[in-house]
């Protein structure tokens, strides 16, 4: 159902300070001040529902697309990680290569996935789908379908490449799981690239995965990016369609997760690996 302009942007006249901050913060000039210095939605088609007008309003006067200020967290005194905490996380975080046998607590996982919807997307397209395999049982079912799909894949007379065929046989025989690292869960983030509003599909899914890693680690869940799945889909385009019901063309990325079986005693040293160039015009 289409949102009318009135439903899209509402201002509580008793609270509005007429400061114009909402108009100034609107990325595409969808808002303007009217003759009585009240903000109005002038170009609803330009509104990307980013809620900046709602967020910036010091008086809590703006409701955007049905979201009222009372439904949002206040930034006053909000507890945020300080620089040291954020830097320590980046230095100490590790890709988990060995996961414990137990499943992750569902309530914790739910909390993480609910917050994850806040990850930013280009032009605020918000077209992400989180397909979560939450348990070892779900992973086993997925892996069965995964191996069956690989076994039945036919691409003319071309065989699966060795890097894929050998680990697949090992997985079938239960003697190794290099692709999924025996994780008890996996999150596949995908987007709808057929939606014209999605301007940055690959960035959107990657950013959501990066935020998942951060939030999951903070909640005590270990993670490991699953880059293999993308490589495998290039060889076997039907893989995620057959296993998880995702469209073949949907951009995606996956992160494995579970309880850690290893505790890393220290971080690593690679602060200086990336080259930094401060480019300032002479
Ligand atoms: C985009 C991306 C894809 C990755 N894919 C895999 C993967 O398929 N399997 C795996 O074991 N590790 C994977 N990794 C983990 C990297 O090997 C790891 O980040 C790197 O060796 C550095 O180790 P660290 O993450 O513990 O710092 C991936 C990492 C990234 C960022």
Q: Ends: how far apart?
A: 54 Å
CATH topology value of the largest domain: NADH Oxidase
| Helical segment count | 10
**Large-scale geometry:** globular
- The whole-number mean of residue pLDDT values reads 95
Q: How does the helix and strand content classify structurally? A: alpha+beta
Gyration radius (Cα, Å) is 23 Å
Given as residue ranges, the uncertain stretches (5+ residues, pLDDT < 50) are none
Total tally of structural domains: 2
Q: What are the bound molecules? A: flavin mononucleotide
How does the major sheet shape up?
A: 4 strands, antiparallel
Sequence of strands across the biggest β-sheet = 5-6-8-7
Topology, number of strands: 8
Task: Please state roughly what percent of the residues sit in beta strands, choosing from under 5%, 5-15%, 15-25%, 25-35%, 35-45% or over 45%.
Answer: 5-15%
Walkthrough of the structure:
The chain is of the alpha+beta class and 282 residues long. It has two domains: 5-71, Alpha-Beta Plaits, CATH 3.30.70.20; 83-258, NADH Oxidase (3-Layer(aba) Sandwich). It contains ten helices and eight strands. The protein has helices at residues 5-8, 21-25, 52-56, 83-92, 106-116, 136-152, 162-172, 201-218, 227-235, 239-244, and strands at residues 9-11, 31-33, 39-41, 62-64, 128-133, 185-191, 222-225, 252-258. The strands form three sheets. It has a four-stranded antiparallel sheet, with helices on both faces. The protein has a two-stranded antiparallel ribbon with strand order 1-4. Strands 2-3 form a two-stranded antiparallel ribbon. Strand 2 and strand 3 form a beta hairpin. The longest helix has 18 residues, at 201-218. It is globular, with a radius of gyration of 23 Å. It starts with a helix and ends in a 24-residue tail after the last strand. Flavin mononucleotide (FMN) is lined by residues 94-95, 97, 181, 224-228.
């Amino acid at each position: 159902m289409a949102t009318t302009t009135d439903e899209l942007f509402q201002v509580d006249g008793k609270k509005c300070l007429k400061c114009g901050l909402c108009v100034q913060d609107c990325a595409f000039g969808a808002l303007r001040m009217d003759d009585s210095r009240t903000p109005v939605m002038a170009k609803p088609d330009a509104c990307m529902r980013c809620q900046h007008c709602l967020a910036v309003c010091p008086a809590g006067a703006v409701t955007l697309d049905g979201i009222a200020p009372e439904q949002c967290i206040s930034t006053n005194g909000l507890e945020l990680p300080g620089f040291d905490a954020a830097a320590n996380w980046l230095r100490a975080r590790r890709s988990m290569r060995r996961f414990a046998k137990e499943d992750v607590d569902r309530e914790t996982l739910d909390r993480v996935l609910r917050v994850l919807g806040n990850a930013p997307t280009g032009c605020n397209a918000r077209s992400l789908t989180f397909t979560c395999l939450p348990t070892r049982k779900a992973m086993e079912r997925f892996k069965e379908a995964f191996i069956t799909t690989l076994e039945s894949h036919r691409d003319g007379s071309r065989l699966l490449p060795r890097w894929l065929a050998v680990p697949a046989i090992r997985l079938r025989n239960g003697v190794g799981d290099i692709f999924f690292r025996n994780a008890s869960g996996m999150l596949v983030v995908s987007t709808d690239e057929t939606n014209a509003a999605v301007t940055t599909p690959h960035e959107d899914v990657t950013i959501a995965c990066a935020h998942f890693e951060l939030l999951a680690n903070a909640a005590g869940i270990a993670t490991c990016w699953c880059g293999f799945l993308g490589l495998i889909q290039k060889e076997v385009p039907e893989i995620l369609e057959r296993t998880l019901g995702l469209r073949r063309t949907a951009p995606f990325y996956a992160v494995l997760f579970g309880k850690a079986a290893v505790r890393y005693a220290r971080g690593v040293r690679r602060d200086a690996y990336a080259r930094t160039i401060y480019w300032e015009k002479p």
